[in-house]
Design a protein that fits this description.
rod-shaped, mainly alpha, 91% helix
Amino acid sequence: MLNDLIEKRKKVLAESEQHKNRRNELNALASKNARERNALNAQTREFVEEAQRHKELRDKINEEVQALKEQRNEYNEKANALFEELEAFKREHGNLRNRGIKELQKQIEHLEFKQQTEVYSADKERELIEKIKHLKASIKDQEAELEQNKEMRAKLAEAREYRRHASELHKAVTEKAEIAQQHHDLMVEAYRKADKSREEADAAHRRFVEAQEAADEEHKLFIACQKEIRDYDKVISGLRKKTRRTRITREQKAVRKEAERIFEQFRSGEKLTTDDLLLLQRAKLI
């Protein structure tokens, strides 16, 4: 029975070592996943901060664009008012053409806006440029007629100046709008990267939780094996003590029996050896 218990204890001990080693492996894996998760979370924060910076810059530039648009519109309104006066003058003098300068200028602005914001084939692009060129030539012809009158020449110069300012502001609006769009695109890209790294961090966290839970389960099994080993140790120790006591009792009985035999010989007058005397003392018969 004792040998069977010792063999069973060996098996449980081996199982305990397996659970301990597996627990340690899983804890190491959990730590690795935790480090990966933390790094990805830090990366996500960096991407979000980068996106916020681009968003702030985009919004700031868009505010500037709006302010420039308002200034541009003011100059255009002043120029349009003067061109209306010029066209009224032409009507009074009976030489107004099919379309006035104001209308031509609006047509040019519309076509230029389409050119800047839409994609055309090479042929269509050339056609659009030619149309703008033709409209500008028409304006130039009409302005040449107006310049023959001194008063109208002054108004035309003032209108041209307003239009020049409006054109410069429109150019600034276009440039800043492009920069704002660049920041917008960078913001969107940074948020996309943040979403991707956040998903990877969530996946790493799930792996961490799975490894940690598995490690906890292995630890519970290891603890259960350790308790079982301690129980075996108690039983084995008790059996060994009992075996020793049984052996000592048998030995004591044998010694006592031999001592009684020698004592009877002594009482019969036989001589005793030193060993015989020591045995009698050990049996407490003398």
